[in-house]
Amino acid sequence: MKLTLSIIKPDAVKRDLIGKINTMIEDKSIKIVGQKMIKLSLEDAQMFYSVHKDRAFYQDLCNYMISGPIVVQVLSGKDVIVKYRELMGATNPANAEDNTIRKSYGVSVEENSVHGSDSEENAKIEIDFFFSKREIYNF
Ligand code: CMP
After folding, report:
1. What pLDDT is recorded for position 138?
2. For a substitution probing ligand 1, which of 7, 57, 88 has the most ligand atoms within 8 Å of its CB?
3. What is the pLDDT of residues 72-114, one digit of tens each?
4. What is the distance in A from the centroid of ligand 1 to the CA of 104?
5. Which of these, 79, 101, 100, lies nearest to 7 by C-alpha position?
6. Distance set, CA 90 to CA 60, 109, 124, 137 (Å)
7. Residue 138 lies in a domain
8. I need a labelling partner for 59 at 20 to 30 A (CA). Which of 39, 110, 111, 125 fits?
9. Active site residue 52
10. 74: left (phi over 0), alpha (psi -120 to 50) or beta
11. Which ligand 1 atom minimizes the distance to the CA of 57?
12. What's 77's domain CATH number?
């Protein structure tokens, strides 16, 4: 089983969508094996998204990610990285396909409700950023 990192972002937590998003995840037979609600510091957000530090949207993205609590989760399953990215849909909700999380709940390219790791290498880095080993349940 592979692992990936999922974030339910401030816009979705504010609109009480944690349950609805996690139902979509579990309906795809993806298991939630780690979970916590946190509020990022600006330093955390800048570090987590440092790969985007030269992009025009970086500061706005970091400020948005600290605008309220987020739910960070470790997801497990066969091909979970690709499977969860398909379930999330395109970065811009306007371009996302039907029955994806971002099409269903995303508001804009910034307030796009969820994040998911884009590769095995980044999944490991991102999971290690938020979780210790004892916080991940190994089925
Ligand atoms: P995420 O999957 O969390 O990874 C980087 C985030 O940058 C992305 O989702 C978007 O929410 C955010 N973002 C904000 N503005 C843009 C933009 N113009 N293009 C791409 N991503 C953007």
Report:
1. 77
2. 57
3. 999 999 999 999 999 999 999 999 999 999 999 999 999 999 9
4. 17
5. 101
6. 20, 9, 22, 29
7. no
8. 125
9. no
10. beta
11. 15
12. 3.30.70.141
